[in-house]
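Q: I have 158 residues here and want to know how they pack in 3D. Can you give me a structure?
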Amino acid sequence: MSQTMNPTDYTETLSFDQAPTEVFNAINNVRGWWNDTAKGTFQKLDDEFETRFGDVHYSKQKLIEVVPDKKVVWLVTDSHLNFLGDKTEWTGTRVCFEISRKENKTYLQFTHVGLRPKIECYDACSTAWGQYLRYSLFYLVTTGKGQPGFPPDGPSGK
């Protein structure tokens, strides 16, 4: 079930000195920042991939929008999150990465459409997304090395 954008969807914005192309390429390097054991492809429209974090999280994503250096959207086509009452809560949600450039800065707006405060996963999932974005994806863009895995290591880089 596809979700429409809502002001309460989890959103995070990051800024980079790097060019939009570098941010776009890092987003599409899912193994480099989110899950180093992801299976499948994540480069072009209609690519599909699966992520698994032990027996806690499984999800399958399909790239439904890819605009080089500007936007990537994943549709979660299947999910099983063992720590939730509704284990398929992510199914039908969308993960959106929107890239823009302003005054020599590149901005990434991340929105997980459907991840809203009223659902069970919101607290744990928004915290995890924040860590993956701020520490792993940010490091991948700025240093060339992300921190994929579960959970991400945080700012210490340990």
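Q: Anything worth noting?
A: The radius of gyration is 15 Å. Residues 10-143 form a domain with the Alpha-D-Glucose-1,6-Bisphosphate; Chain A, domain 4 fold (CATH 3.30.530.20).
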